[in-house]
Structures are given as structure tokens and as C-alpha cells.
Amino acid sequence: MCVMYDLVIRRARLVDREGVYDIAISNGVVELVSRRVSERGVEEIDAGGGLVTPVFVNPHLHLCKVYTFEMIGGDALKYYHGGGMGSSIRAIELASKVKEKYDEKWIIANVRRALKEALRFGTLYIRGFADVDSKARLEGVKTLLKTKEEFKEYISLQVVAFPQDGIVREPGAEELLYKAVELGADIVGGIPWIEDSDEDEWKHIEVAFNIAKEYNRDVAMLVDDAGDPTLRTTEKLARATLKHGWINRVTAHHARAMALYPDTYTRKLARQLRKAGISVIVDPHTGPLHARVDLLLEENVNVALGQDDIVDAYYPYGRNNMLEVAFLASHIMWWTTPDKIKIIYDMVTWRAAKAMGLKDYCRRVMEGCKADLLVHGYPTLRELLLNHEAPRYVIKNGKIIVENKYITEVKSSANTERNL
Ligand SMILES: [Zn+2]
């Protein structure tokens, strides 16, 4: 039998097709998906009936703060999660203390650890936020840009210059944002709801769009991240996006106050978000409120899930494991039926990729798509979420980059032909 492909994955299940397939890969591209590929690969994997999917995508991670929980303790958590999120601004103030000690020297070890976790769990696209303010200065941005380069063969990292403490209320933040983008930050961040007045919120958004337009960057803003139904920066962001013509280039993160809005207003807002091509990133596991995922999807707004935090002042857990995030979301939203589980899976794969503007991400495993794939130890999406384990193999550009050896065979009680 002649060797023809770089890699052949045998007996794989696919999310959108019934039955078992062989997947043949050469030059980093899926060349053939067929019931039986007769030619051999230089390397071969027996998926044993396990699912093969595109890699996971994490569109929201405060990457400069990972593993800082011990430095701050639990006080910020008390304010962020307690009392219906009415005091989340106090949490941000407390958490910002750690930034007085910000130094690339210690941050970098934490960032590397989080990215290695991402590799282990097959999360190969990440939008990482780095704080930019008078305390953090540019230490977070520099660290993320350095690790982006270090990991570039494996992980595509988008670096967001994020003015965590505001732009108007934080002296020097605007200048630091300019500098961050000049250093190479990919995305202009924002957090308009933290400003002291309506006027300052608008000003905050305008400054961010001015930088984005001058340097041709996308925009990512944390909006209305508190239990206050009067917050309206999600709408302001949508209106500014339309005004500046930045359609399909903006993400809105959190928008937790949406949970407290009346339905009529939320639908109106959703229509504006759709018009502006804004994707909404939610993280139901990191706060007691979350945006109206059901309603947004009904109005055709793209919604994705993010990890948000890893062991920091706002959240004491997190592993860059998007199946874990999906598992938690499934409970918090009570989305447990097969069709809802499928949507949750979409929100950590192609919907997250769409939010990040990834052009070459393949929505499904098919001929011609980039071979950035995961070979899982389970045959159905439900079992993927149930176990939220690392995949058996992580494949990048057609090459095996991670093999998680502790999973040796496909574990399934339901040896069914169906995927759900
Ligand atoms: Zn966040």
C-alpha cells in the first residue's frame, strides 16, 4: 500500500454527519474525508469512533492577570459576585492593587502556563486582554506580545490593549493606548461603563474608535458589567460602531446588565447589535448575571463563550479548557437538550472564531479546510461536555502537537451511530 498523505485519522466521527470516516491530511490541509481512505499516511491515528472537531477558540481572556488570585485574596470576588453585582466597580478597584507590582518578569511565567494549558486542551485561538493604565503601564501588553511570538507556531493570540480602569477617569490611559497599539497590540479595548458620567462614556468610546481607525484595528469592549439596569454602554457601542462604519469589527463582552433590561428594549438593542455586526461574548460562569443569549441568537446576533478569567481576583478557577466553560454554561443557562448542546459547542468553536474575525477557521471538518483539529476520546458532543477532558490529540497545520496519553481508548456507553 503506498503512502500518500502526511497524516490519516481513521474511524473518526464528525459533528454534522452520521457514521465513521477517515480523514486524510497533507500540507496542513484536509484533502479527503471518506468512509475509507485506502492510501496510508506517514502518520496514522486511530480515532476509534471518537469525535474529530475543529480546534477550540477562546475570544475573551484577561491573560495578563492569570494566576494572580493568591496575590489579591478573595475580597474582590466578594464584591464582584456578591449583592447582585451591584458593587463590581469596587472589585475592579481592589483588583487593580496587584498592578502596582506589575512586571513582565513575573507575569510572563503565568502567561506561559496559561498558554500551555490552552495547548493541552486544544484552545488554539485566543483573544487575550492586557491591562493598560497608570499602574500596569505597558507591562501586560509587552508580555503578551512576547508570548504571542513565542507560541505563534501553535497558538494564534490576539492582544487587546485594555484600559481596565477607564480612559477619561484614568490619567494617561489614552496615551498608553496609543503606545500599546504602536508596540503591536492587535485590538483596541475599552470599558466605557466604568466612567463617571454619560458624557465620559461617549468620550471613552470615541477615543477608542479614533485609535482603531487611525491604526486599522478591531475593537473589543467590556460593556455594562454590573448589576445595574440603567447601564447603556452596549447600546452606545452599537451606535458608535454604526456611526464609524466599523461593521463586523467589534466585540461586546459581558453586557451583564442586559439580564435586567425589559424585553422590548433588549430586542431593540439586539437589532442594533446585528446591524453593527457586533458579536457578544458571554461568560456565565464568572458572574451571577449574563447577557440574554437566547434572545440575541433569536435576533441573529452572533454570541460566543469566553473563559474570561483564570485564577485571578474575579474568578478562582479556569484552565483555558473551553469544554469546561461549555459544561458550566450548559448548567447555568439550563441548556441540556441535544440541540442546545450543539449551540453551546458552536459558541466555543465557529461562533467564537467569527467573533474574532478569523478568516481561515473552518466551521466543520471538510475537504479543503485547514487541518487544525482535535481528536476526542468520546463520540458525542454530550459526552464531550459531560467529561470536559483534554482531547487525545491536538493537531495544528496537519501536525500532531499534543498527545494526551492518559486517554487510551474511546469511552462510550452509547455506541451509537448518531452524534447526539
Ligand atoms: Zn472579562
Structural domain count: 2
CATH topology-level name of the largest domain: TIM Barrel
Name of the CATH first level of the largest domain: Alpha Beta
* Annotation field: number of helices: 14
CATH architecture of the largest domain: Alpha-Beta Barrel
Distance between the termini: 35 Å
Principal-axis shape equals globular
**Mean pLDDT over the full residue set:** 94
What small-molecule ligands were found? zinc ion
The unreliable regions are 413-420
The residue fraction in helices comes out at 25-40%
**Which structural class is indicated by helix and strand composition?**
alpha/beta
SSE string, helix = H, strand = E?
EEEEEEHHHHEHEHEHEHEHEHEHHHEHEE
State the CATH superfamily name of the largest domain: Metal-dependent hydrolases
Largest sheet: 8 strands, parallel
Can you give a write-up of this model?
- With 420 residues, this protein is α/β, with parallel strands linked by helices.
- It has two domains: 92 residues, Urease, subunit C, domain 1 (Roll), CATH 2.30.40.10; 300 residues, TIM Barrel, CATH 3.20.20.
- 34% of the residues lie in helices and 22% in strands.
- It is built from 14 helices and 16 strands.
- The strands form three sheets. Strands 6-7-8-9-10-11-12-13 form an eight-stranded parallel beta sheet. Strands 3-2-1-4 form a four-stranded mixed beta sheet, with no helix packed on it. A four-stranded antiparallel beta sheet has the order 5-14-15-16, with no helix packed on it.
- The radius of gyration is 21 Å and the shape is globular.
- It starts with a strand and ends in a 17-residue tail after the last strand.
- The relative contact order is 0.16.
- Bound molecules: zinc ion.
